[in-house]
Amino acid sequence: MSPPTDPASAPAAETDGRRLRRDRNRDAVVDALLTLYDEGNLEPSSDQIAARSGVSARSLFRYFDDVDDLCQAAIQRQQQRVRHLVTINVERNASVQERVEALVHQRTSLFEAIGPVATVSRLRAPFQAVVADRLTRTRHSLRDQLGELFAEELSALPTPVAASRLAAADVVSSFEAWRLLRDDQRLSRSAASAVMADAVLTLISTLPTTGGPR
Question: Is domain 10-80 annotated with CATH 2.60.40.10?
């Protein structure tokens, strides 16, 4: 004979079941939005998101406060997915050429992976403080990473020159520069990578002119 069921456990089990369904549906909606972004639809309608996720349009915003909340959740999910691409796999005592190659490989792999979501982030940042703050922190982190990777070369330069070179290297190895090379100039990934590598190497390894900046 089966032991009697504890009536007190039934509400808890029901609550857990609702929570699991809610989490599954929420994940399905976020995944659907990311898929639509990847397909080039950067501003899908609620009906399109619902159709792709299997969640009804009417119940879509049971799981999110509004479209902005859903967008923020998608951006955060994408950042978690590409976290493994943030690390630059190179020894700090490697040659400057090897470090530049490792940097370019890391940046291009990251930028190709985050393309549509990164574009959406930049479109929404002026209107959503949370997205703008996350974007600012990401940019600062990538800039700090660049400074650490080439600390030896930069420390050999006068402080104003080092700051100028770091700022320029940050720009040429940025997502925005990568999209200009890939989209506006229509370069292949390998050609765009070569341009980025050449620009960073020139900035980092070239000695300042006599007398420093004017």
Answer: no
